[in-house]
């Protein structure tokens, strides 16, 4: 109620609870602004995903390289602020830096050099252990699914759940191998 009164001057006795709900005005939509915000959200989300995948603490500032034609000063400011980027470089001829994580958003490639952010040797070792764990689990599930007695006797939903588990683990395994490859 208080915010509603602060938005514009109201008559004595007017209340939000007795007012007519405002009509949607399509003329107020700015498609260009909507596209720009979606573009920024995608870049910031990709940078945050890289942070998460690489176990980079949210408090640690990163460097980012964005392979794109153009970024405005305002866009750079938002990206730096929302993704905790201390240095951002962009250009259409940007090359992928050594030992960096990458993401692709629409036609934009994003790179985050990992040297100095994480201990590359420790991260490689962790990823290799995780890959071995997934490979072992995947072998067990595939063995179970290749057993005709299991497939014939188990309820259909159990077999389907095992198939889904195998597909999910294969997908995770591919991602982990790609991340390990990015580390060099």
Give a short account of the largest sheet.
4 strands, mixed
Strand content: 5-15%
Strand order of the largest sheet: 2-1-4-3
Mean pLDDT: 89
Helix-strand makeup class: alpha+beta
What is Rg? 25 Å
Separate helix tally: 6
- The dominant shape is flat
Poorly predicted parts: none
Instruction: For the record, give the distance between the C-alpha atoms at the N and C termini, rounded to a whole number.
Output: 58 Å
Helix content: 40-55%
N-to-C SSE string, H for helix and E for strand: HHEHEEEHHH
Number of strands: 4
Question: Explain this structure to me?
Answer:
The longest helix is centred in the last third of the chain and has 28 residues, at 156-183. A 4-stranded mixed sheet has the order 2-1-4-3. Helix 2 packs parallel to helix 3 and helix 4 runs antiparallel to helix 6 (156-183). The protein is built from 6 helices and 4 strands; from the N terminus they run ααβαβββααα. By secondary structure, the protein is of the alpha+beta class.
What attributes characterize this protein structure?
184 residues; alpha+beta; four-stranded mixed beta sheet; 55% helix; flat
In short:
This protein is of the alpha+beta class.
Question: What topology emerges from the helices and strands here?
Answer:
Layout: H1 2-7, H2 31-53, E1 62-67, H3 73-83, E2 85-91, E3 100-105, E4 108-113, H4 120-146, H5 148-153, H6 156-183
Parallel strand pairs: 1-2
Antiparallel strand pairs: 1-4, 3-4
